[in-house]
Amino acid sequence: MTQLSLACYLQQRLQQHQPRRVCQPELAEAGVLVAITNETEPQLLLTRRALHLSTHQGEVAFPGGKRDDTDTSIVMTALREAEEEVALPLQQVQVIGELDQVVSRFGYLVTPVLGVIPPQLPLQANPDELDAVFTVPLSHFRAPPSQYFERGNIRIPSYDYQGFHIWGLTAMMIAEMMNNLWDCDISFRV
């Protein structure tokens, strides 16, 4: 895929897909940035949360977090959090749009915001929140998942990449994105 065509491709596919909206106004909102590098072999930007945090220690996640009262939109939440967590300047993100909303097990309404970023940005993990920032080739998520997390009726894929274990809500959002925008057939149930 050429650099110019990635953003156009994503915009066209997102226009063809009606993202799921969850109507639960009592939930606190959170926004995450699903950033894909603009290059021939696109990469997906991910982080690993620091071990000293009170929740989600060591989990792989997208940059993002809880919406602040000062955020004008959930898109701004995702961009602000990405800047705080990995030093990604918001002007470097070409926002494509919002993906399917999900509800976290902690009661947050999470909106993934899809964006395209330049490759090779000098990103840096904020040590107060993260212990790693890394990218994974998007093609890695076209292959069958490493395994599945199953409990009751829930079945969510998980992926392993260079010592990172990608599972839970992050893996589910990746699987939905790959199914909806790249015509993959990744099985999951929530």
Task: Please specify the SSE layout and strand pairing.
Blueprint: H1 3-16, E1 28-37, E2 43-49, E3 60-61, E4 64-66, H2 74-86, E5 94-98, E6 102-103, E7 108-117, E8 130-137, E9 147-151, E10 154-161, E11 164-166, H3 168-182
Parallel strand pairs: 1-7
Antiparallel strand pairs: 1-4, 2-3, 2-8, 5-7, 6-7, 9-10, 10-11
Structure description:
With 190 residues, this protein is of the alpha+beta class. The chain is 22% helix and 33% strand. The protein has three helices and eleven strands; from the N terminus they run αββββαβββββββα. It has helices at residues 3-16, 74-86, 168-182; strands at residues 28-37, 43-49, 60-61, 64-66, 94-98, 102-103, 108-117, 130-137, 147-151, 154-161, 164-166. The strands form three sheets. Strands 1, 4, 5, 6 and 7 form a five-stranded mixed beta sheet that branches. The protein is globular and about 35 Å long. The model has no long low-confidence stretch (mean pLDDT 93).
Q: Can you tag this structure with a few keywords?
A:
alpha+beta; 22% helix; globular; 3 helices; 3-stranded antiparallel sheet; 190 residues; 5-stranded mixed sheet
Beta strands, count? 11
Q: Please provide the ordered H/E string of secondary-structure elements.
A: HEEEEHEEEEEEEH
What structural category do the secondary elements indicate?
Answer: alpha+beta
Q: What is the residue-averaged pLDDT?
A: 93
Shape by Cα distribution: globular
Low confidence ranges: none
Please state roughly what percent of the residues sit in beta strands, choosing from under 5%, 5-15%, 15-25%, 25-35%, 35-45% or over 45%. 25-35%
Helix content: 10-25%
- CA radius of gyration: 15 Å
Distance between the termini: 32 Å
Per DSSP, the total helix count is: 3
